[in-house]
Known about the structure:
Helices cover 5% and strands 38% of the residues. The protein has one domain: Beta Complex (Metal Binding Protein, Guanine Nucleotide Exchange Factor, Chain A). The protein has one helix and ten strands, in the order E-E-E-H-E-E-E-E-E-E-E.
Amino acid sequence: MTHRAxxxxxxxxxxxxxxxxxxxxxxxxxxxxxxxxxxxxxRASVRLLTPEADMSxxxxxxxxxxxxxxPTCGCGPFxxxxxxxxxxxxAVNVRCIEGIEIGELQIRQYDxxxx
Length: 115
């Protein structure tokens, strides 16, 4: 299944392929503040519909995750990194996917604060 997603103003728009299973609520310093619910997918499953140059990037701590966000509305629709095996992944903020009912999702808690 293909899902459409975007930041609030639409400057960053993309499609992501896959079936949304359990999503992750992380309590690390950025996820806690931004309220992200993350769906991890292979990076190749995400197709930008807007220019990559329209995104801004924020990194912190170990600088291994590129947190993408919109410089206009501030929304953070996804991040990019690698999984433990070294494969490129994307962490899609499901709150940015069109038509998602948050109450219908299985949400797993992750203690990123202690990592």
